[in-house]
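Before going further, learn to read the protein records used in this course. A complete example follows; check for yourself that the lines match position by position.
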Amino acid sequence: MSLTSELEQLVNEKSQLGRLLQSLEQEEKYLGTRFRVVEEKLAILALKEQVRSKRASVEQLKSKIAELERRLKDPHARPHAADDEVSSKNEPAEVIVKASSK
């Protein structure tokens, strides 16, 4: 192989490698951006789940507050079953004493 043809071959190879490098750099940039987009979408999904959970907790608290306020306005309103259990535990038990016949 002559030096001229070898030089031409090396120049062509260098040119191809330069184009390949440029193509890979563009792909890397695109994939980096795509990675950040997917990462942000996942972060948003996690935040949406936290918001949903917190919203449910807040609504539950609002409901409990409304129930307690309703009971404040109407003290004769029947309390929840759970409140019945608590109040029955706090009341003294009825004790029946039988006189023994000796």
Remarks:
- The chain has a mean pLDDT of 86.
- DSSP finds two helices and no strands in the chain.
- Residues 3-73 form the longest helix (71 residues).
- The radius of gyration is 39 Å.
